[in-house]
């Protein structure tokens, strides 16, 4: 089935209004119609996929397979080792390593789901191939300013995570009883990581009810937490020590930032995911409400940046305005093509402009 993109786009408000109460709405019927017969489905998360991207993608993949569809997850590039315990990771295709096989599957797809991003450029080198596909796309995402490439958009910036949205998606289709332990474990992991272990402001009472349901369905909460947060290597702990030693605290702006050079990463045998969560340490300091980490990536010729905040200061706006990035109000990312030192100086120079917002 092919939907007309101009007439069938589901807006955020339309889907939010129907996702629970209006189960017979035209919007949910469009999803049901799209999935009413077996489809060849490709599920794509963003580049450098995190816990929510992998958890939501695998949770949805398991569900779609139970519904009789052929479904495969194709990631733009590799993801951290501490996520590779999730059921189904052994079947994930890596576009960076398996481009030919990935393209063959993508071109044969009858439906494409894009998860945890809302702009095709967030898939890096996959973006061009995705833009050429004729299969209808379904977006499930919780970031701001969605693009309109998808035929069906489930977009809600108030949600804790895309994994919680996948749970809502399954529920909206009347299939809560189909949630298996594998689905539950994947979605729980995604919610856990994107809520900062349920401490971020986006965590709602609804989030906790969903998590409780996932535990009832077989999610092993303690094991998941241990696998994600309590498994370290000596090299990662020493890298954390290096990062904390590099932290600069600017009390006049209630701000702290960390820098890590490529040489420092290399000397600590850096592996993808090793710096996960480092940026949050700044916010553990008293009277610090804005934190950043600047990580040099010599291969890509950029500085990768993560921002975190507490309260009303929007790092999403800050990242969009100054660092080619974006995300959520209190958690966002960006990039810089300056050197590491120049990026840090540029960042510090911006803070005076925001002093009134940071010192409220």
Protein model, in words:
- The chain has 360 residues and is an alpha/beta fold.
- It folds into 2 domains: 5-228, inorganic pyrophosphatase (n-terminal core) (Alpha-Beta Complex); 234-358, Diaminopimelate Epimerase, Chain A, domain 1 (Roll).
- It has 15 helices and 12 strands.
- The protein has a 6-stranded parallel beta sheet, sandwiched between helices. The protein has a 6-stranded mixed beta sheet with strand order 7-8-9-10-12-11.
- Helix 4 links the parallel strand 1 and strand 2.
- The longest helix is centred in the N-terminal third of the chain and has 16 residues, at 51-66.
- 45% of the residues are buried.
Q: Please write the string of helix (H) and strand (E) elements.
A: HHHEHEEHEHEEHHHHHEEHEEHEEHH
* CATH homologous superfamily grouping of the largest domain: inorganic pyrophosphatase (n-terminal core)
CATH topology label of the largest domain: inorganic pyrophosphatase (n-terminal core)
- Count the beta strands: 12
- How many domains would you count in the coordinates? 2
Span from first to last CA?
54 Å
Mean of pLDDT: 91
What CATH architecture label of the largest domain applies? Alpha-Beta Complex
**Helix percentage:** 25-40%
CATH class of the largest domain: Alpha Beta
Low-confidence stretches: 1-24
- Principal-axis shape equals globular
**SS-based class:** alpha/beta
Number of helices: 15
The largest pleated sheet is described as: 6 strands, parallel
How big is the Rg?
Answer: 20 Å
% residues in beta strands:
15-25%
